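Weekly sync, protein design subgroup
Attendees: M.S., D.O., the rotation student, P.L. (late)

Item 1: inverse folding check
M.S. brought a backbone from last month's batch and wanted to see whether the design step gives back something sensible before we order anything. D.O. pointed out we never logged the input encoding, so this time it goes straight into the notes. Structure tokens as presented (281 positions):
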């Protein structure tokens, strides 16, 4: 049975620079302090190393030590663990988001928009495919940092219907299909990021924009602290609802872990009353 309420634990982490073992300890300690049993655990982009110029050199093989940490955490907490780290596949290195289940299953997403204003774009290959995570009856779209700036890439959709507004033209509200039958592709967008504090207004604004335009929840999970190159991060982690309102958010500048609970009923009620998706381009 799909779960009515989904609880997300999200960690505004001060990442230890290029020190995976220290970061594993930080994540584990934060979860111990949190208590409770979240359904989903989300950590920032490159949570085990930071967004380093050495990301390619520090890349792991698939199933490497960071995957094993993620799997151990998923099993011990009975939760879906979501985070990114760099992975080497043949001659290519990807900034790869992993959604690891307690049973060892994993959905992967390779960052499509590598950040061209850094060394990431020259060191790492970019992905070319979106992914969909299904967990506890919820459909989750993963994204990584710079992806947030590209609404077409993150567009929610009605699967199998290319031009919704032409199909439903002329129908009264009472004649439109029920959202329980005509499902949008995803319910929750999860964005793992290392988004610098100097651009925090864009981060916060884009999280809300993606939630509003896609009629979905958005969890934006960013790091805090100063990285090894001197770049400061304010975090500004938040879980946003389909209206663009913060359900929960972290104080800027401080490491912390928090939870937010998403309501399936609230989401479906809003989509039923305001079926903007039937006019998607």
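Designed sequence read out in the meeting:
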């Amino acid at each position: 049975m799909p779960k009515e309420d989904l609880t997300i634990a999200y960690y505004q982490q001060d990442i230890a620079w290029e020190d995976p073992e220290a970061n594993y300890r930080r994540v584990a300690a934060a979860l111990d302090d949190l208590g409770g049993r979240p359904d989903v655990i989300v950590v920032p982009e490159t949570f085990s190393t930071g967004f380093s110029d050495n990301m390619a050199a520090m890349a792991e093989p698939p199933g490497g030590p960071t995957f094993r940490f993620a799997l151990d955490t998923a099993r011990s907490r009975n939760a879906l663990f979501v985070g990114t780290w760099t992975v080497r596949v043949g001659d290519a290195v990807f900034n790869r988001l992993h959604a690891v289940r307690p049973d060892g299953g994993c959905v992967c997403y390779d960052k499509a928009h590598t950040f061209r204003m850094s060394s990431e774009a020259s060191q790492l290959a970019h992905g070319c495919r979106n992914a969909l995570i299904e967990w506890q009856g919820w459909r989750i779209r993963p994204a990584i940092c710079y992806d947030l700036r590209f609404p077409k890439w993150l567009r929610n959709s009605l699967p199998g219907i290319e031009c919704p507004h032409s199909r439903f033209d002329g129908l009264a509200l009472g004649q439109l299909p029920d959202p329980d039958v005509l499902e949008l592709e995803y319910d929750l967008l999860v964005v793992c990021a290392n988004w610098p504090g100097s651009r925090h207004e864009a981060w916060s604004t884009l999280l809300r924009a993606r939630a509003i335009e896609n009629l979905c929840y958005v969890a934006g999970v960013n790091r805090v602290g100063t990285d090894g190159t001197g770049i400061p991060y304010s975090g500004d982690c938040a879980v946003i609802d389909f209206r663009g309102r913060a359900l929960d958010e972290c104080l800027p500048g401080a490491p912390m872990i928090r939870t937010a609970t998403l309501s399936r009923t609230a989401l479906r009620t809003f989509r039923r009353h305001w079926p903007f998706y039937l006019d998607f381009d």
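Discussion: The chain has six helices and 14 strands. Residues 105 and 275 are 34 Å apart (CA to CA).
Action: P.L. to compare against the previous round before Friday.
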